Amino acid sequence: MKAHASTYDRVMAMLKWGTVGCAFIAAIVIWLIA
């Protein structure tokens, strides 16, 4: 169970930072197009 919990925490952190990164890249692209 402990291994599962640490893996879950890592996956959630990657999803969170991936979402932030994608939003940042999208904002740059929109700024470049505008």
From TrEMBL:
InterPro entries cross-referenced by the UniProt entry: Cyt-C_aa3_sf (IPR036596), Cyt_c_oxidase_su4_bac-aa3 (IPR012422)
Source species, domain of life? Bacteria
What Gene3D superfamilies has UniProt attached to this entry?
Answer: Bacterial aa3 type cytochrome c oxidase subunit IV
Q: Domain Cytochrome c oxidase subunit IV bacterial aa3 type: where?
A: 2-32
Is-annotated flag, keyword Isomerase?
A: no
Q: Does the keyword Cytoplasm apply?
A: no
Per UniProt, the keywords (alphabetical) are: Membrane, Transmembrane, Transmembrane helix
Give the transmembrane region(s): 12-33
Name-wise, this protein is Aa3-type cytochrome c oxidase subunit IV
- Native organism is Sphingomonas oligophenolica
